[in-house]
Design goal:
heterodimer; A: 239 residues; alpha+beta; five-stranded antiparallel beta sheet; three-stranded antiparallel beta sheet; 10 strands; 33% helix; B: 161 residues; seven-stranded mixed beta sheet; 3 helices; 28% strand; elongated
């Protein structure tokens, strides 16, 4: 149940009706308590998303995901990934003084737990619709692999890169040049928006897979340009 | 729920997808589809259209939509042509390296200097190479595909991840 006793289904339905009236063909994201939404910047209402995030995830602070929430007057001056600490490190400034802090440990488990929470935004019917659509696009064999393992492989004719498309995980780009296969990057892309620090997009899991597959096979350069390219050692890559 | 010819699927948050149809027997639906497709392209959606090349079907991105003729406009990228151009270029580079190596070896054997004149360093292209491809592909050609005879998928702009 959502806030005020309304079911998530009815909340999602209401938002979809609003989206239809406004002519938002891809819909609008469904807020989930405890999860922050990151929206594509040019999408309508993207500039209002922080207001919504303050309601669903109060006390979010300047940068969500930090072990301690910073006050608004704290300025983040720099950030980088530390392989030794296996977390993001932030250099901050407050009242002319500098300090540093590390983000809470983020690994596959934290992302996976957040993804379970974000799944309240989806409906089973929507996911089944997307799976049927995926089946019509990739064919029986690949769909069978997807259904049974949560992933399937497809090779780009343009670049020769092998892609492993995964449900609720970034797509893995694998180079087959050389003696052994080599992971080039994990490509993360969510149409419209996603729930921060999770593997969940605002669209259902299989809709994300469809988007990845269609873009990788149809316009590979655009796919790489629009996706976040995570190195294999980062928790976001889920490898 | 198959995606049939003449249909466009727009990936949607709540509905899974919205399906539009360019069925010529339903004029109202075709008008609606035209309007939405134009709007999607204007907003930066990626519109991937299924095309057939050399008997093989694949998806390619539509860069525009002609609503007078209901045709998707696709930049004509042919991976076979591009691959052939890349292969020819690699073959020529390998040939150049082989010639240079042979020339260096001959000079060492004869005790001559290893300096190479500009003329000797630029051999003629290998016979059979498609030199037209090496001059660059130029502006890509565009192909128009009838919307009622193919299927397409529209994906909204990405927020990364």
């Amino acid at each position: 149940m959502g806030p005020s006793g309304a079911s998530w289904g009815s909340i999602a339905y209401g938002i979809s009706q609003i989206a239809k009236e406004r002519g938002e063909w891809a819909g609008l994201p469904v807020p989930v308590r405890g999860e922050r939404i990151v929206m594509e910047k040019s999408y309508p209402l993207a500039d209002k998303i922080d207001i919504l995030n303050a309601v669903t995830c109060p006390g979010g602070g300047v940068v969500a995901g930090l072990s301690e929430r910073f006050e608004p007057e704290v300025i983040i001056r720099n950030e980088f990934w530390s392989s030794r600490l296996h977390s993001m490190v932030y250099i901050w400034e407050k009242d002319g003084k500098f300090g540093w802090d590390r983000a809470a440990i983020r690994n596959n488990m934290t992302f996976a737990l957040g993804t379970i929470g974000a799944s309240d935004a989806w409906s089973v019917e929507t996911e089944l619709t997307a799976m049927a659509r995926l089946h019509s696009l990739v064919g029986a064999r690949k769909f069978r692999q997807y259904l049974l393992t949560g992933s399937f492989l497809a090779k780009s004719k343009r670049s020769g890169i092998m892609y492993m498309f995964r449900r609720l995980r970034p797509t893995v780009a694998i180079s087959l040049n050389g003696k052994t296969p080599k992971v080039l990057a994990a490509l993360c892309l969510h149409s419209i928006g996603y729930y921060q620090d999770t593997f969940a997009g605002v669209q259902t899991a299989t809709d994300d897979v469809i988007a990845h597959f269609i873009l990788a096979m149809g316009d590979e350069k655009l796919f790489w340009r629009r996706a976040n390219q995570h190195p294999g050692y980062r928790p976001e890559a889920a490898l | 729920m198959n995606l049939n010819k003449g249909e466009v699927s727009i990936l949607n948050v709540a509905a899974g997808d919205i399906t539009l149809s360019f069925d010529k027997s339903n004029a109202a639906e075709a008008v609606r589809a035209r309007r939405i497709i134009r709007d999607c392209i204007r907003r930066g959606y990626a519109l991937l259209v299924e095309v057939e090349r050399d008997g093989e079907k694949r998806f390619e991105r539509a860069v525009d939509f002609d609503d007078k003729t209901d045709r998707y406009i696709i930049a004509d990228f042919d991976p076979v042509t591009a691959a052939l151009a890349d292969k020819n270029q690699r073959a020529e580079e390998e040939f150049d390296r082989a010639v240079m190596a042979r020339a260096d070896e001959e000079r060492r054997e004869s005790g001559q200097s290893s300096e190479v004149t500009v003329e000797a360093a630029a051999p003629a292209p290998r016979a059979g190479a498609d030199t037209a491809e090496r001059r660059g592909r130029g502006r890509p050609r565009r192909t128009a595909v009838d919307a009622s005879s193919t299927r397409a998928v529209a994906v909204g702009r990405s927020a990364g991840g």
